[in-house]
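My hope is that you will study the protein record below before we discuss the fold together.
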Amino acid sequence: MKRNPVAMFDIHRDGIPDPNFYYKEIGGKKVAQMRLVVGRQNPKMDANKEFAKRLMAYSNKKHPNIVKEIFIARGNFNQDLLPTVILVEAGTYTNSQESAEGGVAMLADAVPAVVNVDYIRGGNTETGAYGFKLAAWILGIAVVGRCIFIDKCWWISCSS
């Protein structure tokens, strides 16, 4: 938080045992769909929900049906920290690692367009200074997503 991030993504795999619940063929690739989760118990719920809607709309425009839905859940998932914090369910633990990674990559592909620094920072037109931070966040999302799925998903979360 000291570095003033523009957005944060908490990536998990869902606990639903049915591998077909998130399975989709998109652009000829077998991938796990993403579910965006917004917590009800945080003061920034409305802003987090609007961010999720923008992320879902743009992601699905770029890669049709990559985001399955926005799920409103109990909890706050640290979403009280920023108006742009999203918990992402990257398929379920029963989906293959490759399908989950493919889905995360498609979602991450949409992030640069959705994370509009001007919009988030209240109209600051000097976005060039934030370009490096945005690139670092996107890289961070990819690295965290990859780490989550190493060794057949040693970190499984059942947050639904």
Notes: Strands lie at 8-14, 23-26, 29-32, 34-39, 67-73, 85-92. The two ends are 26 Å apart (CA to CA). The CA atoms of residues 60 and 157 lie 24 Å apart.
